[in-house]
Amino acid sequence: MSVTAEPAVMTETAETQGSGPDAPIRPESRDAKRFHRYVMFAIAVALVLLPFGLYPIFVMKVLCFALFGLAFNLLLGYGGLLSFGHAAFFGVAGYVSAHAAKVWGLNPEFAILGGVAAAAALGLCIGALAIRRQGIYFAMITLALAQMVYFFSLQAKFTGGEDGIQGVPRGRLFGVIDLQDDRVLYVLVAVIFMAGLLMIYRIIHSPFGQVLKAIRDNEPRAVSLGYRVNRYKLAVFVLSAALAGLAGGTKAIVFQLASLTDVHWSMSGEVILITLVGGMGAIFGPIAGAFVIVAMESYLAPFGAWVTIIQGAVFVVCVLLFRDGVVGVLSRLLKRPL
Amino acid sequence: MTTLFGFPTQALFGQLLLGLINGSFYALLSLGLAIIFGLLNIINFAHGALYMAGAFVAWILLNHLGLGYWWSLLLAPVAVALFGVLIERTLLSRLYKLDHLYGLLLTFGLALIIQGMFRLQFGVSGLPYAVPAELAGGTRLPFMYLPTYRGWVVVASLAVCLTTWLLIEKTKLGAYLRAATENPALVQTFGVNVPLLLTVTYAFGVGLAALAGVLAAPIYTVSPMMGADIIIVVFAVVVIGGMGSIMGSIVTGFGLGLVEGLTKVFYPQGSTTVIFVIMAIVLLTKPAGLFGRSS
Amino acid sequence: MGDPAASVSPAGTAAPLLAVDRLEGWYGESHVLHGMAFDVREGEVVTLLGRNGAGKTTTLKAIVGMLEKRRGSVVFEGVETIGLPSRKIARRGLGYVPEERGVFASLNVYENLMLPPVVRPGGMSLEAIYQLFPNLKERSTSQGTKLSGGEQQMLAIARILRTGAKLILLDEPTEGLAPVIVQQIGETIRRLKADGYTIVLVEQNFRFAQTVADRHVVIELGRVVDEIPNEALEANLEKLHAYLGV
To answer: Does C122 reside within a domain?
Structure first.
């Protein structure tokens, strides 16, 4: 499918804006890059300040989901592929990290890296199958394969089935730094998040990222230019899966738990919601989305089924009225790409 | 005890029957999905939730209005179809000019809302729905015991599927539907009310899902989550069959149900995942699906 | 050029069957029609001539309401249709045969033929159609797109004749067809004219247009630049060559 979600977003934007000076947003411009540097700096400052105002554990949760969203958005916004199965990578990485830390007694950094590796390997398998179809079929295939992973996690021994893996030790970073203190752990999570964000930013602006954009915007043209389109798609799929795994593995260490919730399809829905609310295709979109959604869910948690209903309503409202998301709107107000 | 390939025939045929029943639901659901996708270009993620809603309408009719199974079989699909009209007119019709993926996201949101509402009202534990008296009991066949209701489900689904096929392939209305699936703008220039056709098609598709829900109510317990898992399997069925052919959807649905039943006999651990494995194999060998036209 | 229609107006002053005026049309963001204006009187065959991309097909699409964004005025039988959806325009008695013929692959020939609803009494009977196009009867159970190009064109015209439409818009009916088929289509158009149909024909091939039309409307860059009565065509050949760039 050459018409993907993101160009649709772009067309929308062009229509609502008309052809003014603010119509074409070109992320490549030098001005934009400088602006992005300021935004990165602001995010870094915010990471330092946030734990003074909010519970570190809440901020860590937001950061894990934000990184998950960034990984998902790399695939959707820049690869033009809507995966409905990203919970598989997030959840499996969580299981592997938790297992590595608890059963094998690995240091947290190796446990998380193990999760990343598992997610990347799984991404290679699922991606190789899913990229054989486009658009709507791609979404259905990723959903179905992720459901297979869910059933596997339900039955396999090492995942602990319905109970999950509980009481995962946070361990000592590099064998030295005790992570039991939330504030110490927070520093690690913030560093991982920032590293992930910078890496994604680098990927998008690399020659590889440019080819991805060319494929997304006009696949037949990219093929005729001699690009092996499927290799690029698979590569971005694996990268996205690995980064989702980084988020999932980190979350397992932070919450000392890996459970079926994280491999369930509703988790795949959640990361889509985070990205949709934040702004599909906006580089910083999922960060805002994660804040909104995680905050909303922690306020609504006591109301049970209402969480699902409100999530659903947010989906409907975003699709009908708010397709650019928070950051998309912000970007338009500032007349700068975000 | 008689055995076949070393398995007791009772168990073998019992599982095959169960597979056929699951296949009936796969066929009814994937048929509706395919018709809706063909004309509206929307993958209706809410299909599973509306299947569940069909089962609940039957339960409510029985327990609050005293209307039995046969009334439900008629009224539940109509009620859900009317709800479908509302969805299509107020929500989906705003998306036709956008990328198809928005339709998937919107109907996913709808599915969450519908499931959440039923959970709020009825909790998560299933509610029982009794087999209607006329279809209670069963027959002892030489190789197995056939519960009447289960036989009825298979026959009824098959009849509904074939009627739908005839409706689409052999009637004037079906010709409009097929033509509009190919080129809606042109059909509109002939004076055909295509927007109405879209509404009717969506209502019909979700009506089929509700009918499947009513048929399922006495077999499975009626629960808010009954549609969530089946819809993912039905997506896989649709990928395997390809959405290009109506008959293809029917055949694939029943066929995969049977395969799943067989797996339950020979390799029970694999029964939940066998359809996904088949999907992977089909993607590797025939990416457009068994009955799909590659586009 | 001011009002080209006025300059070639014949003695009869009856209101035109179709009056297009100040018609603007867009494909997405690109503005294609810039104030098209021409009239078609009842019983006339009028061709729209012009180069590729001049806006001939777009004009037909704007008239039948297939363009999403259009402005100006299209009056059919005294009724303004510019604000109507295409299905309502068709219901007023306007039949459209698209360039790509629009024969449906998932319908057989008979189903294709019977697809458009009858919009007015007085359409051709199935028998009359089969008499006009005997091939369609022979192949009535074949898949629509299994027909030859010529047969598909016949089918696309035939199914409109059934509906009782008074005005028929034909988009390049001869495109890509063998000379003998082109001749057959020419005969069909003359026959329809004799039966009282009004026809707007988009053509690139003015030699063909010459054999069927009463009048030629020349289009350039989304505007009418000239109108040439068929009798004056030979006298205006040089001008026409310049317009069409042949």
So the answer is: no
